[in-house]
């Protein structure tokens, strides 16, 4: 591995995790997620538990091209990117400081390594030497500092990174605080946070955090002037049609030679049935995602299936700003009338694991074991009667297609069976997302995030920017503030257990399952492992 | 004649002006602007951010003033943010505003910037119109000769077996909308699991493709082949064939009852010559208008077929522009529609004079 750390000091908690792993308290995946988030390189982490780091299978063959069926959305300023598909195109030439791999580890890309102090208030980032932009300029600490200033700019509407680094922002100006990000020398940057923050590393790896060149103008389309550090450049980006990435000319990529010559993204729309026809008529080599019953069909066509177990999930949530759901007893009764097992089977073909109505899953390092909830459909009507809602008309809203609709329909059917007068309304994506936070009762898909507290702080704190339930529980908020200061997942787990209990008791969400994600590709390609956040790591792809 | 053409062009301009204003007004309703803000900014923006986005990107103020900007009679908007960076209608991000023109609308030859395609409207729409042009050309080449032949054949002898058979076919094909015939054709001819493709594949007739035709016309954008283009063309043509054949038949049967036909027959002219020399030219006047009317109709018909077969032409563009509320693109699409409708009608009126000397253009 290229990022083997020599002579750097090991985070004290890493050794502790290794012991826990040896005692069987930690799974390998959890161990890797936690230690690499502390700045231990993947190779060193594997070394701590006495395993060899997985070597890249043989030297990958150089050459060839791949055609991937994926929606081609317009590329936009990375910090505004709102879909992984957008990032998968600019990933060809824009790289990240840190990368989240599909085995749960964090790997330094433009950073060679990083260190975190004990209470997670100071991060020391070491820039990888030898990285150049494809215009020949070297990549230095100045680039890192400049990108932090871009990310923390809260005055830009839709800046997805702005809320990610609260400890670096000056609240008055909503921009980077003086002294928050300090260039120590050409290769070292120090982050000084006002409050502990354990999500810095996962946030730097998320898809809007692509690192752009100094010539990039705010709000510009990155494809118009594609200066980046990555191995490819865009030859063509035609929205709704195709995007073609080709090897960057006259550019020595720091990572060596990326195997494929060309990567073609072709937009065939989103109909999963079309994918079957496309594979059978040899129009594509790989797809973006395989869903529902099409997984079996594609398996049957002799394609290679890639699977990853994630914390991607669906939340069928109530919003207490609606009079129907302002009563906690009503919400709880509705939550407990739905059996997650049935929803998983009907809504997602059993292609996942049941959830526990608290938006945390075993893949998360701080996942707590809570007592099982008792499913009780018989309790629903008495609760509704007590609240005077016996004859009220309820409505649950979802997207109009695929498993989102099926899952929501399964929830609705169970509530109906329990005696509730509820109907299911579907909306196309173009209108659904306009008001997604405001519906009284609707389903929302949530992407995988490496730490459980990341989703929970976005969705369920009273100030969370994606709070779709109107939940405002002071105790939960206080616990979350504490939890976000604890880098040690074991200590955080105690708080996570309390927060999980509050979430279950508040009854806002029905969180029936977490999904396994799948994609398919033809035989003859390697390195296309599906990623929990749909990231495409082009340099790993090759023709076998 | 010259005056007539001029008057028609005047009507065309006025219609385009009125229609674009209606489209502009509808796309600039508040909910549509919010939708635009969310697709352009970020899906997950707050309501305040959406309002700010709308104001800072030239979508606030009087709707007439904004329409004027599009026309190029009102100076383009500019906005300077808190960092001192200026953006505006008439210049790209990063360009010096001082060098930009004040006006940049239709009158200056600027069709605007498509927010969906992230390209100038003129360039992206031109490309799409070319794609649809190929589709329409192929459809016309199949549809016009087939339908005229069928119409004339069945209109020659009203009530004969040929007439009844062909009429049944015409009525059936024109009564089947594209979204039905398209799906039937795909199921029948273009899947490896059903229809006739698996049967032919069993005989080894379909190597290396597994299907007779391709159910997606996306690859026809680069390279039109018999394999990928047949189904979309057939789907549109089938509907038109029935329609034009019925019109031709009606016109033909009427001509065949005329006295000059009877006279010719009584003089002993062979039936074949009567049809070819006396009846055909007169019978083709009505179908000519219908065929010219097919052009604007095709422009609508392609919306369904292009979406069904994933062919990225004008129809698909219209759908994308509408669902993403891409204002300049929708306006340009309406102008194209007006021009196509009125231009084909002009050609049809002029052509009529040549086919029928009794009619004169004032």
Protein described:
The complex is a heterodimer of chains A (544) and B (362). Chain A is an alpha+beta fold and 544 residues long. Chain A is built from 16 helices and 22 strands. In chain A, a hairpin with a 4-residue loop joins β6 (169-170) and β7 (175-176). In chain A, α9 packs antiparallel against α11 and α15 (474-483) packs antiparallel against α16 (489-506). Chain A is globular, with a radius of gyration of 23 Å. The two termini of chain A are 21 Å apart. The model of chain A is unreliable at 1-8 (pLDDT under 50). Chain B has 362 residues and is mainly alpha-helical. In chain B, 66% of the residues lie in helices and 3% in strands. Chain B has a two-stranded antiparallel ribbon. A two-stranded antiparallel ribbon of chain B has the order 3-4. In chain B, a hairpin with a 4-residue loop joins β3 and β4 (119-120). In chain B, α1 packs antiparallel against α14 (327-355), α5 packs across α9 and α7 (178-189) packs across α12 (285-308). Chain B starts with a helix and ends in a 7-residue tail after the last helix. The mean pLDDT of chain B is 86. Chains A and B meet through α7 of A and α2, α3 and α13 of B.
């Amino acid at each position: 591995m290229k990022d083997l750390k020599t002579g750097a000091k090991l985070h004290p908690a890493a050794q502790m995790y290794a012991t826990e792993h040896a005692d069987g308290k930690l799974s390998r995946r959890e161990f890797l997620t936690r230690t690499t988030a502390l700045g231990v390189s993947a190779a060193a982490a594997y070394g701590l538990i006495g395993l060899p780091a997985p070597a890249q299978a043989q030297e990958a063959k150089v050459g060839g091209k791949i055609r991937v069926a994926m929606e081609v959305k317009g590329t936009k300023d990375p910090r505004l990117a709102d879909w992984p598909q957008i990032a998968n195109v600019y990933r060809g030439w824009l790289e990240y400081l840190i990368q989240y791999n599909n085995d749960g580890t964090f790997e330094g890309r433009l950073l060679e390594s990083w260190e975190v102090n004990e209470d997670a208030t100071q991060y020391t980032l070491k820039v990888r030497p030898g990285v150049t932009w494809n215009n020949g300029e070297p990549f230095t600490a100045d680039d890192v500092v400049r990108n932090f200033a871009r990310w923390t700019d809260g005055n830009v509407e839709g800046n997805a990174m702005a809320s990610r680094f609260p400890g670096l922002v000056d609240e008055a100006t909503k921009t980077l605080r003086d002294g928050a990000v300090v260039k120590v020398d050409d290769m070292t940057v120090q982050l000084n946070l006002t409050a502990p923050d354990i999500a810095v590393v996962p946030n730097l790896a998320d898809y809007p955090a692509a690192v752009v060149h100094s010539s990039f103008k705010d709000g510009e389309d990155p494809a118009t002037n594609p200066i980046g550090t990555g191995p490819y450049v865009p030859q063509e980006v035609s929205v709704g049609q195709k995007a073609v990435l080709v090897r960057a000319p006259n550019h020595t990529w720091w990572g060596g030679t990326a195997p494929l010559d060309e990567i073609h993204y072709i937009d065939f729309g989103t109909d999963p049935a079309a994918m079957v026809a496309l594979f059978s008529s040899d129009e594509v080599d790989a797809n973006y995602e395989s869903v529902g019953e099409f997984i079996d069909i594609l398996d049957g066509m002799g394609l290679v299936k890639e699977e990853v177990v994630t914390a991607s999930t669906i939340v069928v949530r109530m919003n207490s700003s609606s009079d129907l759901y302002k009563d906690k007893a009503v919400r709880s009764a509705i939550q407990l009338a739905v059996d997650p097992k049935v929803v998983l089977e009907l809504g997602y073909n059993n292609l996942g694991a049941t959830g526990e109505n608290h938006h945390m899953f075993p893949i998360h390092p701080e996942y707590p074991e809570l007592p099982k909830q008792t499913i009780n459909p018989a309790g629903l009507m008495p609760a509704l009667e007590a609240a005077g809602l016996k004859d009220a008309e309820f409505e649950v809203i979802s997207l109009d297609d695929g498993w989102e609709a099926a899952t929501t329909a399964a929830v609705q059917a169970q509530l109906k069976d329990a005696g509730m007068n509820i109907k299911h309304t579907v909306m196309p994506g173009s209108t659904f997302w306009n008001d997604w936070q405001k519906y009284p009762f609707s389903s929302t898909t949530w992407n995988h995030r490496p730490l459980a507290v990341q989703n929970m702080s976005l969705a369920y704190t009273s100030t969370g920017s994606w709070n779709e339930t109107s939940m405002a529980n002071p105790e939960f908020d206080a616990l979350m503030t504490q939890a976000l200061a604890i880098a040690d997942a074991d200590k955080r787990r105690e708080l996570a257990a309390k927060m999980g209990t509050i979430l279950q008791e508040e009854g806002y969400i029905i969180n029936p399952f977490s999904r396994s994600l799948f994609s398919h590709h033809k035989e003859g390609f390697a390195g296309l492992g599906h990623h929990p956040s749909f990231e495409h790591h082009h340099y790993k792809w090759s023709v076998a | 004649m010259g005056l007539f053409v001029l008057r028609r062009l005047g009507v065309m301009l006025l219609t385009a002006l009125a229609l674009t204003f209606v489209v502009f007004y509808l796309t600039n309703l508040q909910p549509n602007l919010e939708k635009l803000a969310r697709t352009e900014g970020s899906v997950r923006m707050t309501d305040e951010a959406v309002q700010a986005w709308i104001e800072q990107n030239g979508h606030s103020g009087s709707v007439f003033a904004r329409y004027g900007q599009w026309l190029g009679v009102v100076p383009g908007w500019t906005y300077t943010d808190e960092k001192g960076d200026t953006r505006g209608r008439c210049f790209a991000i990063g360009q010096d505003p001082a060098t930009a023109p004040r006006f940049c609308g239709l009158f200056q030859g600027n069709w605007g910037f498509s927010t969906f395609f992230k390209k100038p409207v003129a360039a992206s729409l031109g490309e799409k119109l070319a794609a649809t042009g190929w589709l329409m050309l192929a459809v016309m080449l199949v549809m016009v000769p087939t339908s005229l032949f069928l119409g004339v054949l069945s209109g020659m002898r009203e009530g004969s077996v040929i007439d009844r058979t062909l009429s049944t076919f015409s009525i059936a094909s024109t009564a089947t909308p594209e979204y039905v015939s398209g799906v039937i054709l795909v199921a029948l001819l273009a899947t490896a699991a059903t229809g006739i493709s698996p049967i032919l594949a069993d005989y080894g007739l379909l190597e290396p493709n597994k299907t007779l035709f391709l159910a997606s016309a996306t690859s026809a954008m680069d390279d039109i082949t018999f394999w990928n283009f047949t189904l979309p063309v057939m789907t549109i043509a089938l509907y038109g064939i029935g329609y034009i054949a019925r019109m031709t038949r009606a016109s033909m049967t009427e001509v065949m009852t005329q006295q000059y036909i009877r006279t010719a027959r009584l003089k002993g002219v062979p039936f074949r010559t009567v049809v070819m020399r006396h009846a055909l030219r007169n019978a083709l006047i009505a179908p000519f208008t219908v065929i010219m009317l097919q052009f604007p109709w095709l422009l609508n018909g392609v919306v369904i077929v292009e979406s069904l077969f994933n062919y990225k032409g004008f129809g698909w563009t219209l759908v994308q522009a509408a669902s993403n509320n891409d204002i300049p693109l929708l306006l340009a699409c309406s102008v194209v529609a007006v021009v196509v409708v009125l231009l084909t009608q002009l050609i049809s009126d002029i052509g009529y004079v040549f086919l029928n000397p009794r009619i004169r253009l004032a």
